[in-house]
Structures are given as structure tokens and as C-alpha cells.
Amino acid sequence: MKKIIIDILGGDNAPHAILDGVVMAAKKDKQLQFLLIGDETQIKERATKEGFVDRVEIIHTTESISNNEPPTNVRVKTNSSIALAVENLRKREDCGAFVSAGSTGAVLAGSVLRVGRIPGVSRPALCPLFPTKTPGKNVIVVDVGANVDCRPEHLFHFAIMGSEYMKSMGIPNPRVALVNVGVEDKKGNELTAGAFQLLKQSDLNFVGNMEARDAFSGDYDVLVCDGFVGNVLLKTAEGAMKLVGARLKGALKSGPISILGALLVKGKLKKMSAELGEEAAGGAIFIGAKKTVVKAHGSSEAHAFANAIHLANRAMQSDMTENIEKAIARNTITEEEKKDGE
Amino acid sequence: MKKIIIDILGGDNAPHAILDGVVMAAKKDKQLQFLLIGDETQIKERATKEGFVDRVEIIHTTESISNNEPPTNVRVKTNSSIALAVENLRKREDCGAFVSAGSTGAVLAGSVLRVGRIPGVSRPALCPLFPTKTPGKNVIVVDVGANVDCRPEHLFHFAIMGSEYMKSMGIPNPRVALVNVGVEDKKGNELTAGAFQLLKQSDLNFVGNMEARDAFSGDYDVLVCDGFVGNVLLKTAEGAMKLVGARLKGALKSGPISILGALLVKGKLKKMSAELGEEAAGGAIFIGAKKTVVKAHGSSEAHAFANAIHLANRAMQSDMTENIEKAIARNTITEEEKKDGE
């Protein structure tokens, strides 16, 4: 089994929460092999204590790239954890995936620069899992911010990549929909009109346009949009949940009966919001890079980071990147075919 | 006082909920004067019974435009309630506003075609009120769907119009923000980069870029974006609230203590979600038309429709459209000024 490279220094709660996450993942899945990048003494001590040091290789560094630095620093700070991670991911046959909770920009820039894109993919995309009404059932949105200006063929590639990703997650025939302002075929702007035509001609299970109010309905597996729209979708969902939470708190604080009721349901409410948060923040695949790259949420605690590791492992094991390459090739209309069709 | 034109036949619950809404509004504000368009006998009977028939003029029709028809039918079906409404709004000095819960497309198309735009406004926009964390405090989003392909100057006009609208709602110096993928000045796509520059040079209270997760924080009064992004924002918020509602229901149904707790907080939860729904669905101003046009939610019940009428009245009374014209003129950089600045 190939090694998963972990950036021990990235994230708001690094290195402790990250190391805790690695321990959790290692205990849950005894097959996992790691290349851990961070403080050698600290990592070795912990891995020895937890009894999985035989599955751990370490590259020592104490340098990291913060969220406040330009992402392109990944080129200059060659001894930073992210730079070392992408360099090893590129050159080593025995490494298959990389997980970091550090600077999104640096992880993406480093992956594109050093690891490169899957042949045929025009633009890699950032692709998180979202919760749906049914606990345990997810929907993905491609892209949520890596590409803020897109052309129709980019959205088309997002759809292909998203579909292969969901196959790697165990969904045999993912339902792909285009995020739009209405469900009718003719709805939308220039970008979606162009993407709609490409999607209709593809071998994807394309179910048409959808409206964001149904994003979490469970009726779709893959939602396709440009990175600006996806980013707004991601963050609006977060904001709306915060709004409901704030109002709920206010409502439950007023009157003795409500306070009693609130006490009785408190645990359940807490569990629900933890579940939603967990499902939402588990990690986003940076899809389209030659090897599996997972960006865990910056605020990841151990449990969320462990989930991100399992996610990376699943994508790595299922040959997702190879399948994306094949699907892109299968769906690419050559200039010759275009002429034949005319 | 000028008359408010009401489309009695538009909306999922028309005519009864609409007529009920008119009755509620008429009772709350004894100054209101109406031009009601719908079934004459039905309207007359109701207005007489409720004691405000002296404030009501009626135009009889039984024809309406459904959501399934092309909005441009408003040109052909000249005897439909929406066509009659916009025609009267255009030609009659004594009519100052129009409220409909009918086809959004037909209301917008009809308003642009017959009533026309405020001089200087490049594109009218659809602009709903959203709830924030603080009950009673709203934020508006311009645009949420009237313009799916925009240039920077359109967003600039949206900002000016939104700001004047919030002034008419009693906010003296509205905080205007640009919806973006990050708060830093340089963030975004080509469209937002262009709009940012225009907004920075304006006399608006422009506070910079914002992220959709803070849409309902209460930190902003006017959120500016193209109609595609705004539509996704509007509908994602709706979808996320549905998601929380569904999970909440599931969580509260499990276990006897939770069920007891759920019973004790049920009323509060219902009130909270009604409040959020009410605030969200009260009505959207179609801002930029020469006279005030309010599009109430298609599913409006009486109370929501009455709110939409009060909203229209407030905008009409505060000379919003005149103020928008002045603000646009004030912020328009003439070719001559451009040369002077060079």
C-alpha cells in the first residue's frame, strides 16, 4: 500500500490536533502507511507511544506556510512542510496521497506546480463533501473556489471529475446536476448555457439544471458550478446555519418552559450541529491533480482530520485519478469527430 | 396619497390569500388607497364587508399569467392582471406602486416594458430583504436573479439603488459590501475586481468585500452581486434552513427525553421558523423601475402579502425612485470629468 503524506504543521490546531488525527486514523485502519512531515522528535515519540511507529516515515522540518502569506511562497520556502510534501508526492512512487489542513492556496499552488494535472484536465477544482437531509449521505460541489472565472469546458471537466470522485466513494452512477437559477433547460447565464450543452452530450448521468434550494435534498450526488458560485454556496450554507443557530439560542432562552425544554433537547441539538459540521468540514478533495490531494478544514480537530485521511485513502485506493484520466479522454470530442457530426 | 395597484390574481394562493392580505394592510394603515385588479364582484363584496370600499378602485379582469407561460406574454395578454397593472402604473399620475405575487418574469418584463427604467439606471434588479441574527434587522441582496450576466457598472448601479432603498427603510448610512470569495481587496473574479474599483470611488458607504458566511451577521445592510450569484445565495440559504429543519426534526424524534423536550420547545421553534420565513419572504423590490414595484413571494399567505404592501408603501412615500435617480447622476463620472482626472 502506498504512503499517505501528512502535513503535521498545517492548520489552526497544528501540530497537536493533526497528530491526534493521524493516531486515530492509524488505529482505525491498520493498513495505513504514513510519511509524516513535521518535528521529528515529537512525531517519533508519539508514534512509538501509540504503537504504529513501524508504519511511519518522518521528514523533519519546523517551517510552515501561514494563511497570511502569498500561496506562491510554496516555491520559495522549499523547506516548508507543504513544499516538502508536494515534492515527495511528485517524485516518490511509493507515495499516493497528501493531506493538509494548512493554507489552501499553498496546497493548491504546490500541487499544481509540483505534482501537475491529470492529462486532459483543464483546471483542477476544490471539491468538498456536503451533508444532506439523510445523515451519512453526501453531495459534492465542484468547484468551490479554485477557479473563479470559468468557461463551459471547465465546468464540463468538473462534472467528469466529480462523477469519478463519487464513484470512488461508492456511488455507482452519480447523479450530476448543473447549479442554475431555475430547472428549465434554457435557464441561466452564458456560462451555464454552454456547459449544459456539453453535459447533455456526455456519457455522464446528467440530470439537468438544479436550484440551490435543493442542494442538500439528497436528490443529487454532484453539483457543478464555477468556483465563485460554489464558494458563495458553501459559505451561504455556513452562514444560514449560523443564523438558525443564533435564532434558536435566542428562542430557547426565553420563558421557563422553553428553558426546561432546551435543557432536555440540548444534547440532541449539540449532536446534530456537530454532525453537520463534521460532515461539512471533513475535507475537500483537490480534484484533478495527478495524485490524491485532500485539503482538510483549517479549523480541523482530530476527528475531522482523521476523516480527511480516510477520504484520501479511499480515493487513492480506488484509482480515482486514473479513472478521471480515462473518463476525460472518453468524453473529449476531437476536432475530427466534431466535423463528422456536422 | 397615491394609489397602490394590487394584482389580486397572482400567486399560489390567489385570489383569497391576496385579498385577505389587502384587508389586513387596509385595516392597519387607514391612509392606504388601492387600485385592485381582479374579479370585480368578489372584490367589491369583500371591501364593502370590511368597510374600506371607499378607498378602493377596481379594474375587472379574470385573466392572469401563470408561472408556466413565457413572461413576454405580458405583451400579448393585454387583459391579464399584470398587463393591466403595469399599464395603469405607467399612465396614471395617481398610482405610485404595484404589488404582485404572480409570475416574477411577467412582473419584471411588464414593468420594464411599460413603466420603464429610472433615468441613468442600466439594469433594474430584484432585491429581497433577508433576516439577520438580530430579529427585525434586515439585509438586502441586489440582484437575486433579474440579471444573470453582468458587467462591473451594473453591480455599481445595484449598489447605489440598494443603498437608496435601505435609506427609504430608515437606515441613514447603509453599509454596502461586495459579495466575494474573500475579504481582501484583490480577491475575486474579473467582474468583482471591476466593481470594486467603481465602488471605492463612489460616495457610498462601501465597506469592501465580504464572504457569504457573514451575509446574515448584521454587519452589512446592502450586499451587491450579479443576479446568478444572488440567486444561488438566496436559494442556498433556503436549502440550508430546510436541511437544519429536517435534521432537527429527526434529532427531536428520538428518545423519550427528547420528545418531551421537543414538546416543550415546539412553539418557540415554530415561531422562530415562521419569523425567518416571514422576514425572508416578505417581498422583493424590483428596484430601478420608474415607479415602485414589489414582487411578493409566489407562496405568500395573507400576512406576508400585507407586509409586501407596507413595504411598497414605504418605498413610495419616501421618494425612493427619485432619490435613486439623483444618486446615479451624482455618481456618474462624465467623459469630461474622466479627462480632468487624468
Radius of gyration of chain A: 21 Å
Number of strands of chain A: 11
| Separation of the first and last Cα atoms of chain A | 48 Å
Structural class of chain A: alpha/beta
Describe the strand arrangement of the main beta sheet of chain A, using strand numbers.
3-2-1-4-11-10-5-6-9-7-8
Categorize the overall geometry of chain A: globular
Strand-residue fraction of chain A?
15-25%
Written description of the protein model:
- 2 copies of one chain form a homodimer.
- Helices cover 49% and strands 16% of the residues of chain A.
- Chain A is an alpha/beta fold and 342 residues long.
- Chain A has an 11-stranded mixed beta sheet with strand order 3-2-1-4-11-10-5-6-9-7-8, sandwiched between helices.
- In chain A, strand 7 (176-180), helix 7 (190-201) and strand 8 (206-211) form a beta-alpha-beta unit.
- The longest helix of chain A is centred in the last third of the chain and has 26 residues, at 227-252.
- Chain A is globular and about 60 Å long.
- Chain A starts with a strand and ends with a helix.
